Fold this sequence. Notes:
The chain is mainly α. It has one domain. The protein has helices at 2-22, 25-46, 51-73, 77-105, 111-135, 137-161, 176-199, 205-208, 214-241, 256-282; strands spanning 165-167, 171-175. Helix 3 (51-73) runs parallel beside helix 5 (111-135) and helix 9 packs antiparallel against helix 10 (256-282). It starts with a helix and ends with a helix. The model has no long low-confidence stretch (mean pLDDT 91).
Amino acid sequence: MLRTRVLTAVVILAVLVAMLFAAPADGWALFVLAAALLAGWEWSRLAAMAPASQAIFLALSGAIGAAMWLLYVRHAAAFFEQLALGGFALAVAFWVLVAPWWLARSLRPAPFLRAVAGWLVVWPTWLAFVTLRDASPWVLLATAALVWIADIAAYFAGRRFGRHKLAPLVSPGKTWEGVAGAFLGVAAYGAALAAIARSHDTPLTTIFAPGHGLPAVGAMLALAALSVEGDLFESWMKRGAGLKDSSRLLPGHGGILDRIDALTATLPVAALAFALAARGAAA
């Protein structure tokens, strides 16, 4: 099992890095679109949709994905930018207001609301993958690495120091000590990026320039908190559906949503902040 998990992780990372830095913009958008459509199929399983509802949800998901990709490749830049900003704003509202409320009250909303939630989870994430990569592959990679570092730090801190359960009814393995470890790991990562950005001209220099990088590190800690929420939200959906994994598409890792659950909560927020900061700098 461990060998399969490691091998799958190596293959995923190799393909991801190759596409991130070598693929043309429309090729990258199509690559992550395929992942988004598969994630949408997994969501329909987590939402426990009836077969007819699932078919409608998947058909509409395909239509939404195709329309957004065609809009992107036809270089309708101004309209696509507005679409992305709207998607990011909806995602922020969902992750800041709706998802915590559902989690705190262990709510299982109506099927229609679960379907809408799936689109708010999947499509702003696709938009963020596209727009952040357009800004700079390094910006996207650095943001994704934040989530990976938070996850790794939480795992080891939880194993070593974990005593107090974070959300035992949702994900019994997660602890507050693990969350503290995630914050420490992300803070150290942010401090390292700030030091590099101040001493060398990098794609991240403009992000870490203000306030000696402290505002950027603070934003990274906020994203780390959202990554925990994204992880918990998918765990809650899986528990409600009686599933251990979102699917078995990735040997040893479960499904695509199992790998991007934290990214669905962080990337749209990061993309919105980056876009607004870029607009402010250009004004």
